[in-house]
Write a structure and sequence with these properties.
Length: 516
């Protein structure tokens, strides 16, 4: 693969984020060169072997005539291919395309990854999306190459493999924990996807792969390098809420409120992955827990396309060069993020975390199994909406606004989950008293995962621009940011970083609850 070919493929990949698909020629070049940067963007099925791989698979390169390309592992499985045992294509980072897209397909992919089909079926998925099941199926097949059942099946198989290789739970228990309806269905799917029996997959653990650690499920969450883990973890360190989060010896811990129960997670960055340890009340929540942590840490982003878009900008280019791989911090729960965003209006970060900590202590449920200083889950919108107003130590106007937001979230008049329609969510947020453009864009950036969200009125954004020599008003900041589309959320992270000292989240060796 020549340098010219490589640049063409990189340009095409960047164009993918502008709704132009990678063509077969570019995909073949990536496979031919074993380019790991394309892992997760697409999969390569080899008709002569019946196996599908990631582009960087170290096996011998197949002949072009024997190759088929798929945009999702589920599409390859639906076409009759089984996963390569050597490169384990099901363990790649997810495609950033699904995070970027705000259309029906993007919303559906995010909901399926969160386990909605396993919990509520295709009918439940369609209800969340406000379309008929037939239309959802048709759109997914047209874009992804597989319907919702096939996509959910692939995810169940991946969850089952993880549980087989990391826990001592019985095979029958794993079958139902992964979302299968019967042991027979479980055995059939595992054989079809991995060309191995559940017992053979479990044997890998006995050889020392992914050992269980103190009752926790220990996993590696892969990402595309480079990854600015120091910047990401420093962001969380500055916003730790007592009882909900802590950092111990460089590892970020927090509680999780999941569909079937609660849990905790401990996350620490590695050279090509984030190490995660999950402790869950219900093993069926493993899939959603993993996906929510991937969103929290923005692990499916593609740093190369972001660098291509922002690196040439005269204001941001130097920062992109010095700190490549900066990501957009997400959230594990959109409702929690929205409440915390409102608490953070017109106060310092330290004050906002103090207010959130008081809310957690007063209204949050206690974890059945605390982890160090992580003792509570964040209170639900319903519990806040029904609380005694005197428990909320806020100015009267902001208290009314917070209660109004929580009432709207509890009644589902506003939804901020991964399947929310971003334009409609923004419109409904702005219609609430006390919520303006800053709060709406902050929620869109972190909870709705819109990579183009931009809080132009943010004081930090304007201070950073001033530090870079551009003294602008809010409207002028909007105009300036047009050049950063479709990555204005990433541009915001680079601007905020201008105001922070170099990240050193690993330095503290004791529990930290509040930032200095």
């Amino acid at each position: 693969m020549t340098m010219s070919d490589s640049r063409q493929c990189e340009a095409a990949r960047g164009a993918t984020l502008r709704a132009v698909e990678l063509d077969d020629d570019c995909q073949w070049r990536a496979v031919e060169s074993g380019d790991a940067r394309f892992d997760g963007w697409f999969f390569c099925g080899v008709t002569s072997t019946g196996i599908y791989c990631r582009p960087s698979c170290p096996a011998r390169t197949p002949k072009p005539k024997n190759v088929r390309f798929f945009s999702a592992a589920a599409a390859a499985q639906a076409a009759g291919f089984r996963a390569c045992k050597r490169c384990r294509p099901d363990a790649t980072p997810g495609s950033p395309e699904w995070d970027r897209r705000g259309d029906l397909v993007g919303r559906a992919m995010r909901l399926i990854a969160d386990g909605v089909v396993d919990r509520e079926g295709v009918t439940g998925l369609a209800r969340e999306l406000a379309y008929t099941p037939r239309h959802v199926h048709r759109e997914l097949v047209a874009v992804v190459g597989a319907g919702p059942l096939a996509l959910a099946r692939a995810q169940r198989a991946q969850t089952a493999r993880v549980l087989l290789e990391t826990t001592d739970v019985s095979v029958t228990g794993i079958a139902f924990a992964a979302g299968f309806q019967s042991v027979r269905q479980f055995n059939s799917t595992i054989r079809a996807v991995f060309a191995a029996t559940p017992s053979e997959l479990r044997h890998r653990r006995q050889r020392g792969e992914h050992p269980e650690s103190g009752g926790a499920i220990a996993l590696r969450l892969p990402y595309r390098a480079p990854y600015d883990g120091d910047g990401m973890f420093a962001f969380f360190a500055a916003r730790l809420v007592p009882g909900l989060e802590e950092i111990v010896d460089g590892a970020y811990r927090r509680s999780l409120a999941l569909p079937r129960g609660t849990g905790t997670v401990e996350l620490s960055p590695g050279p090509d992955h984030v190490h995660a340890q999950f402790r869950l009340q219900d093993l069926r929540d493993l899939g959603p827990a993993v996906q929510r942590c991937r969103l929290l840490l923005d692990l499916d982003s593609d740093p190369l396309t972001v660098a291509n878009a922002l690196g040439a900008d005269p204001l941001l280019g130097p920062s992109v060069t010095v700190t490549p791989g900066r990501r957009v911090p997400g959230s594990v729960d959109g409702d929690e993020l929205a409440v915390r965003a409102m608490l953070g209006q017109q106060v310092t970060v330290a004050s906002a975390t103090t207010l959130a900590g008081q809310l957690v202590e007063a209204l949050g449920d206690t974890l059945p199994s605390p982890l160090g200083g992580v003792t509570h889950v964040f209170p639900s919108p319903a519990s806040v909406a029904d609380a005694d107003p005197n428990q909320l130590r806020l100015p009267a106007a902001r208290r009314r606004s917070l209660l109004g937001l929580c009432a709207a979230l509890a009644s589902r008049d506003i939804t901020l989950d991964v399947g929310a329609e971003r334009v409609e969510a923004r419109r409904r947020l702005l219609a609430l008293p006390g919520i303006g453009p800053w709060t709406t864009e902050y929620i869109a950036m972190r909870a709705l995962r819109d990579p183009d969200a931009f809080p132009a009125s943010d004081l930090g954004v304007r201070r950073a621009l001033a530090k870079l020599g551009r003294h602008v008003t809010t409207s002028e900041a909007h105009e300036l940011a047009e050049a950063w589309r479709p990555y204005r959320a990433y541009a915001t992270q680079y601007l905020w970083a201008q105001l922070s000292p170099p990240a050193r989240h690993r330095a503290p060796k004791r529990s930290r609850h509040l930032a200095a």
